[in-house]
Amino acid sequence: MTTAAPRNTILIIDDNPDTIRLLSAMVREQGRVLFATSGVAGLELARSQRPQLILLDVEMQGMDGFAVNEQIKKDPDLRSCAVIFVTAQTSSEAEIACLDAGAVDFIPKPLNAAVVQARVRTHLRLQAAVAALDELANQDGLTGLYNRRYFDQQLAAEFARHRRHQLPLGLVLIDVDDFKLFNDRYGHQRGDACLQEVAEALNDGARRPGELAARYGGEEFVVLLPNTTPDALARYGDWLCRRIAALGIPHPSASAAPHVTASIGLCARIPAEGDTAQAMLHAADMALYRAKRAGRNRSVLAGDEVIETQLG
């Protein structure tokens, strides 16, 4: 799960091009700088780029900074973005209003480069610290994958996003075949090592933006694949069966092969109104049950016939 930390992204939303140029020059050494000249454009850019920090002008034509900030706080994809208000209003009442609205800080105009740089640096450090703590809280201690709590949160968010944009969402449930027999034969230490190898294979196969692999519980894993059609998901399930078998972990007690294999349930759909993430999980779970009932070591796409992986 752990990857190299990305470079900070700072979004400036201000309807004054001169202020944008000035702020950009002040903070460009601290991250990648993006800008928008209206609240609507700024929200669209924030949703696509997920900046760590937003420098938001209060006094803008049309949608002002408070209205933009309100939309940011309502959006589950943007709630983690830190907002610093930038304004010519320097009264204590104005500062309190900005902080009460949920901003992490307040920068008055005219801009002082040293002050801007110090406050941006401070809040980027705080964002990095919070992200590190979140990653630890979201991590499965044995495998290093995401844990079920984090997966449930991301499934809900991605399901809502895919329903909003009418895109196909792919879900994969993986169960290591006859794992109890593996533990009985080799002991729990070897069992843990087996799960770690399977987890690494899953993580290697979830590299596109938005994809994630998680430990669902015990010897069960789950993978979330945004914008994935049923045909693409079927190919992924076939590949994943082969990838796990190719680990070559001996398992003489298994029913499907003399090495560790997996049964996989797949579900891909465009979420409709009235559809739920839990219903999608249930469909994938029923497909997993069919894979086990059909002899294990294969993937099954919900609603379709068994897609078998021919392995020796």
From TrEMBL:
It holds the Pfam family Response_reg. Transmembrane segments: none annotated. The modification 4-aspartylphosphate is found at D57. GO terms for biological process: cell adhesion involved in single-species biofilm formation; negative regulation of bacterial-type flagellum-dependent cell motility; phosphorelay signal transduction system. InterPro entries: CheY-like_superfamily (IPR011006), Diguanylate_Cyclase (IPR050469), GGDEF_dom (IPR000160), Nucleotide_cyclase (IPR029787), Rev_trsase/Diguanyl_cyclase (IPR043128), Sig_transdc_resp-reg_receiver (IPR001789). It is an enzyme of class 2 (transferase). It catalyses: 2 GTP = 3',3'-c-di-GMP + 2 diphosphate. Residues 167-304 form the GGDEF domain. The keyword Plastid does not apply. Its EC number is 2.7.7.65. PROSITE patterns: GGDEF, RESPONSE_REGULATORY. Keywords: Phosphoprotein. Residues 9-124 form the Response regulatory domain. One of its GO terms (molecular function) is diguanylate cyclase activity. One of its GO terms (cellular component) is plasma membrane. The keyword Phosphoprotein applies. This is diguanylate cyclase. It comes from Pseudoduganella lutea.
